């Protein structure tokens, strides 16, 4: 006879919740999900004196005798040999703090099949002083398989994050908590802040792999429904220097439009961005003089002409080297190259940082100054450039005085709001022709109103 609480009225006419005495039939026990068994708590190995049919089925046994031959009729014989020490230690530790234990382990099946169970036991001493463990076990093999897949997926994310130096984040918008995967501190030399987030064969073995393809359409649909951002940006490191990354994230919303989850990543693009910037800069510069080449200068000038920088006016100077052909022919290309480099440096020193200094080709240079309008400043700049001493190194001793190269300038100052580079170039070229006819070191200015 067993004392228990019946939930509904029983055959003895009891009322709900009343404590009564009634027999627990084998049929009743067999209908409880999972396996039930009892084993002695005071002998080595834990001798079993009761086991339910479900336990036998978990071992693939048809009879109790078959079960006993596999397990030696003991609890420890039920546990896979590789798990026995851990399980024994865990149960001992837990019983020291109470009368229940919870462990997981693999069954010691003779066919080698991996069956995991969740074991919940209670330590009981009966009226005769005998100590027992009453245990229920549930098959959790599928759960463990899923858990291993989940752990493997997490490890895969971590390994790929390490290899790519990316940072992945997952924010719970409601709880205002977040997780970051990846070494943020190594990349940015500081701790993350909330604002930062808002084929080679390795062996000789033949490979024959069963591949599992994961369907990402569900996730793709989720992302499509969210608020997706994909942009190149930079975050400051501890010293305030920009560290470039590609920011990708999406936000999931609930039924009433409130954000519930924000997931994204910071792709490590810093080295790539810096390389591209270096290559782009090299592609924009003249290889000899280091100033802008014609294509880069025209693009920058056209962009400036369409901006507010030129709303009040601008100036374009065309600079030509006097006597350059005679210098190049009479003293060689190295001397000619030195003249070009010195003139480019001279123009750069005497113009503002944002002004465009370019070599258009041969010995022709251009200077564009946004916001430089008619007045004393323009006149001073032209006088300084046309009459300045650009050469910092002495010319060859046998170079005649009248052959010393200088520069002539054709300038145009424009106060029109709608003008193109070609418009400016045409007028400046006409002014340059006038300056060249006037002699060396001359400047001629035209207006375009």
What about the largest sheet?
5 strands, antiparallel
Number of domains: 3
Helicity level, as a percent range?
25-40%
CATH architecture grouping of the largest domain: 2-Layer Sandwich
CATH class of the largest domain equals Alpha Beta
Principal-axes shape call = rod-shaped
CATH topology of the largest domain: Alpha-Beta Plaits
- Summed over residues and divided by their number, the pLDDT gives a mean of 84
Domain GGDEF: 312-448
Organism: Adlercreutzia equolifaciens subsp. celatus
Protein name: Diguanylate cyclase
Pfam families: GGDEF (PF00990), PAS_3 (PF08447)
Fold and architecture overview:
The N and C termini lie far apart (about 115 Å). With about 450 residues, the protein is α+β, with helices and mostly antiparallel strands. It is about 35% helix and about 25% strand. The chain has 3 domains: about 30-140, Beta-Lactamase, CATH 3.30.450; about 145-190 and about 215-275, 2-Layer Sandwich (Beta-Lactamase); about 285-395 and about 400-449, Reverse transcriptase/Diguanylate cyclase domain (Alpha-Beta Plaits, 2-Layer Sandwich), CATH 3.30.70.270. The model is unreliable at about 1-20 (pLDDT under 50). The strands form 4 sheets. A 5-stranded antiparallel sheet has the order 4-3-7-6-5. It has a 5-stranded antiparallel sheet with strand order 9-8-12-11-10. The protein is built from 14 helices and 17 strands.
């Amino acid at each position: 006879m067993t004392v228990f609480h019946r939930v509904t009225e029983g055959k003895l006419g009891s009322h709900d919740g009343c404590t009564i005495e009634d027999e627990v039939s084998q049929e009743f026990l067999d209908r409880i999900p999972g396996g039930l068994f009892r084993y002695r708590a005071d002998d080595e190995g834990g001798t079993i004196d009761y086991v339910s049919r479900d336990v036998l089925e978990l071992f693939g046994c048809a009879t109790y005798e078959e079960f006993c031959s596999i397990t030696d009729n003991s609890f420890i014989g039920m546990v896979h040999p590789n798990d026995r020490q851990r399980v024994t230690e865990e149960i001992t530790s837990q019983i020291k703090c109470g009368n229940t234990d919870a462990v997981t382990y693999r069954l010691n099946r003779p066919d080698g099949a991996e069956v995991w169970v969740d074991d919940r036991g209670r330590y009981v001493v009966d009226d005769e002083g005998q100590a027992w463990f009453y245990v229920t076990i549930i098959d959790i093999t599928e759960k463990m398989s899923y858990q291993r897949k989940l752990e493997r997926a997490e490890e895969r994310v971590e390994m790929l994050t390490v290899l790519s130096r990316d940072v992945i984040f997952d924010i719970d918008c409601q709880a205002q908590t977040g997780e970051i995967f990846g070494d943020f501190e190594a990349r940015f030399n500081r701790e993350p802040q909330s604002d930062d987030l808002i084929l080679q064969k390795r062996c000789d073995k033949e490979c024959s792999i069963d591949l599992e393809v994961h369907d990402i359409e569900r996730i793709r649909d989720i992302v499509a429904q969210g608020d997706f951002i994909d942009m190149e940006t930079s975050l400051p490191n501890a010293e305030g220097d920009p560290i470039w990354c590609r920011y990708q994230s999406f936000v999931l919303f609930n039924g009433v439009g409130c954000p519930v989850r924000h997931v994204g990543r910071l792709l490590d693009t810093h080295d790539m961005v810096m390389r591209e910037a270096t290559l782009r800069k090299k592609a924009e510069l003249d290889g000899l003089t280091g100033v802008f080449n014609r294509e880069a200068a025209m693009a920058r000038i056209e962009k400036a002409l369409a901006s507010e920088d030129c709303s009040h006016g601008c100036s374009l100077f065309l600079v030509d080297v006097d006597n350059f052909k005679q210098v190049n022919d009479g003293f060689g290309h190295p001397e000619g190259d030195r003249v070009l480099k010195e003139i480019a440096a001279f123009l750069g020193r005497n113009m503002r940082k944002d002004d465009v200094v370019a070599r258009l080709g041969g010995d022709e240079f251009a200077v564009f100054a946004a916001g430089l309008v008619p007045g004393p400043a323009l006149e001073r700049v032209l006088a300084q450039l046309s009459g300045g001493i650009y050469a910092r190194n002495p010319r060859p001793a046998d170079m005649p005085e009248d052959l010393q190269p200088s520069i002539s300038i054709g300038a145009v100052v424009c106060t029109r709001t709608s003008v193109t580079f070609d418009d400016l170039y045409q007028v400046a070229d006409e002014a340059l022709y006038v300056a060249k006819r006037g002699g060396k070191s001359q400047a001629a200015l035209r207006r375009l109103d």
